[in-house]
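Supplementary Text 2. Reproducibility record for the structural model of the 657-residue chain.

All settings were left at their defaults, and a single model was retained for analysis rather than an ensemble. We include the record here because the model underlies the residue-level annotations in Supplementary Table 4.
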Amino acid sequence: MAAEAPLLTHFGIPKEAISVKDALKTEKAKIQIVELTGSSFAITASAVIKESSNPQLFILRNKEDASYFTNDIEKLLNNEVFFYPASYRRAYQFEETDNANILLRIEVLNKLIQKRNPIIITYPEALSEKVVSRKELKKNSVSLKVSDQIEIDILKEILLNLNFKKVEFVIEAGEFSVRGGIVDIYSFADELPFRLEFFDTTIESIRIFDINTQLSVNTTNKINIIPNTEAKKSINHQVSLLEYLPKNTVIWIKDITYTKGILNNYFDKANEEHKKYLTNSTTNHLLPDCLFTNGDEFLDQLKNFSVIENNNKNFLKPTDLVNGNTTPITTINKQFDLLKKDIQKNTKEGLSNIILCSSEEQEDRFNSIFKNSEENLDFKCILFSLHEGFIDYINKQAVYTDHQIFNRHHKFKSKTKFTNTQAISIKQLTSLNIGDFVTHIDHGVGKFEGLHKIENHGNEQEVIKLTYKEGDILYISIHSLHKIAKFSAKEGLEPKINQLGSPLWKKTKEKTKTKVKKIAYDLIQLYAKRKSKIGFAFSPDTYLQHELESSFIYEDTDDQVKATSDIKIDMEKQMPMDRLICGDVGFGKTEIAIRAAFKAVADSKQVAVLVPTTILALQHYKTFVKRFKHLPCKIDYINRFKSKKEQKETLKEVSSG
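Retained model, structure tokens:
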């Protein structure tokens, strides 16, 4: 099965997982696993839950650990995992919030109500905040399905009462819009909004649509609309997340003592805030135990579930003890001789050596580094990524990760999918003011006059109104947003407004096209001349190039990998290279330049790096020195702060090679 492939193909089923499965046959089992280090915990847990129909809750020590663990579980199971973060709302902060954390929290509650048996990963700060009860959530949710009978005005009233905001176009959770017989709703528990089409009072269809394109991506027969359940707090309807969980949930926890301490700490802070609140306010107040779960309450609720502690020091009295016998991998820190000795030692002890590589480039680097090794090394590289390596003496595996070998920061992919659905064209439209100049691709420059509703063949239609010279009016469907753009020019420059039907705009476009063609023709001639010239074809990458690139402390982004590869392809051709790399500050352009520079140096060429400012010259010099610290090349710099003598000395060394 595809979902099982990563776990079974690379690691098999750990013996510890079989023991845990057997122990879970006891109702409300309390299991202690000892000596499961690194990502061996994620591998064992994945093997236990991959065929389980029980909901699973994992409680890690903090948000970072929980994020890394989420990434590991998702990769191992090839399955959807739900992340439950803290909202980070202060004890008496009651204003509405709609950040991605709240959306993710509500999504988890929705999945639990729908009895989907989800895999949920969280941490103590998130558990400390109480949530709306199941009963209250159901009461404040709206279930709709195809063929339901409901008047649009009544649905509108229901949504307003649930604090949904009526807008022209939905672009964020908690918004809805009404256009004739079409109602768009963006629920707090779903990644994309819904579009309901009515025939009179009957829901004819429900579509899930993309807010960027306004096009349908799927259809559904039934939906559950959920408001922002975190916006209002009520004394009678707040419960701990554990009260939400079905009784057959299995709870995995790294450190119960630590979790209890964090919960108590948050609860104590809430008490302090509560005292200040009573001093400064005469209005109704909420008690801390209505808003936050304390440590004792958490422990009391924990007794109702099967609990697995992954800790060498247990808190609960275990019904079963499972031994892991794993240890952390040796700290290599780019010392390949140390890695070679480790691999040989593991082989003698009967362990198989696995090096997890995050990219094909990393795989090639390892093979290149070890290719000419005199030692007979028994290892295999796997294109797969986990957070932390380990040595497993029970399952006879030594698992290394490329980022740990190179002492490189390992990135995790945050669960913030809700924040990425931003409709740029819709947002630009809502940012336009009456009287702003806009350019229509077919009709030229006009003035934006807002959104209007017009009658079209008996149907009310929402349109954008533009005015042109002599008062001419143009109405544009909202589905033609791609044809208009806000006019941009030098600050203070007011454009001439075009006249509808006039040939002037067409002539302007043709004139511009002619100029563009002329520029293109000149560029083609220039490139043709360059192509006819013979340049220096650099050699393929050496092992030193691999070492330099492997020593980069961050993981390469996809764009960096592509840019580096394209530059190397250009450099290895006889044709002179002509390439421009564009990217925002901090996107890694300097690292790409460093790699290209070293490729040239490795072929006995000299490299000059030109920068626009004096400060940048010094900054780049320091960066290059740091990156080439252990490599055989000399680096110097020239700027106006250097004396004439120092500049001459540097230039003399350049001229002498």
